[in-house]
Design goal:
Layout: E1 3-5, E2 11-13, E3 17-18, H1 25-38, E4 42-44, H2 52-61, E5 70-75, H3 82-96, E6 101-106, H4 113-125, E7 129-135, H5 139-148, E8 155-159, H6 167-176, E9 179-183, H7 197-206, H8 210-220, E10 224-225, H9 232-239, H10 248-255, H11 270-278
Parallel strand pairs: 3-4, 4-5, 5-6, 6-7, 7-8, 8-9, 9-10
Antiparallel strand pairs: 1-2
Helix pairs in contact: 1-2, 1-9, 2-3, 3-4, 5-6, 7-8
Length: 283
């Protein structure tokens, strides 16, 4: 496993395990336990995933010292605000059964996220969070936050895969010293990514799977990845990407696959924003 050093000196694994869309407690706990056993040390969850308790249960029984794990969770839209964020953070911490978080992220750039950020800055300075960051902040929103915050975000978790590569976003993150992290690094299986002829040929050349080639491509761009699976063989396979390197020629071929827009979410859509505001993580 390789690591990246965040802008505050904290070391973060370049690959982690995500649990989005794994709401079943038993399945989620087993998947996280399998991931930790396979060698993952970064586990990424969120209040909006409704599985923090299951993640916490897996952490409790995994046998790996807490300081060797890097645990991330996220603040949902309804909790964007100073007081709300303080309460939501403690709720997440209690559900996970932890004394501190390694990374706490604002899940969406909606609502009073500036109030939430002030609360997170305080929690960070108190040592309850090792690093704070954001998700889904497009370049202009990230730049505005970086120019007004006391603590620059350590991470920006955004959609990054061959069909939506976001080079402009990566350039903005680099300018402000923010580490990019990819959600949906396998494009959620869209566009026939796993059967793409070029990627299939590339995978055969390296003796790897298409998934491994795509994940390796992102890490070679300096992007942290958090692939998700509930299948033990794929959990192991997704981690086995650190023994090969894509040539520059192959990196360029994948770069040419960029569509320039997301076909998974549209944060510029008022309907999608209304949907996110209406999604509740607690009543």
């Amino acid at each position: 496993m390789e690591f990246t050093t965040l802008n505050n000196g904290i070391k973060m694994p370049m690959e982690g395990f995500g649990v989005f869309q794994v709401p079943d407690p038993a399945q989620c706990e087993q998947a996280v336990a399998d991931a930790i056993q396979a060698g993952y040390r970064l586990i990424d969850t969120a209040a909006a995933y409704f599985n923090e308790e299951a993640v916490g249960a897996a952490i409790k029984r995994c046998g790996v010292p807490r300081e060797e794990l890097f645990i991330t969770t996220k603040l949902w839209v309804q909790d964007a605000g100073y007081e709300e964020a303080k309460k939501a953070f403690q709720t997440s911490l209690d559900k996970l059964g932890l004394e501190y978080l390694d990374l706490y992220l604002i899940h969406q750039p909606l609502g009073d996220y500036y109030g939430a950020w002030r609360a997170m800055e305080e929690l960070y300075k108190e040592g309850k969070i090792k690093a704070i960051g954001v998700c889904n902040f497009y370049p202009e929103r990230l730049a505005d936050l970086c120019l007004t915050a006391k603590v620059i975000p350590a991470v920006n978790q955004v959609e990054l895969h061959p069909f939506f590569q976001q080079e402009n976003a990566l350039a903005t993150m680099k300018e402000f010293g923010v580490q990019p992290q990819a959600w949906g690094p396998l494009a959620e299986g869209k566009h026939g990514i796993f059967t793409n002829p070029m990627l299939t040929e590339m995978a055969e050349k390296y003796g790897k799977s298409v998934a491994q080639v795509v994940l390796r491509w992102n890490t070679q761009r300096g992007v942290v990845i958090i692939p998700k699976s509930v299948h033990q063989n794929r959990i192991v396979e997704n981690l086995n990407i650190w023994d090969f390197e894509l040539s520059q020629e192959d990196m360029n071929k994948i770069a040419a696959m960029d569509l320039g827009h997301s076909e998974i979410v549209d944060h510029s859509s008022p309907e999608f924003v209304k949907y996110l505001h209406g999604a509740k993580v607690h009543e």
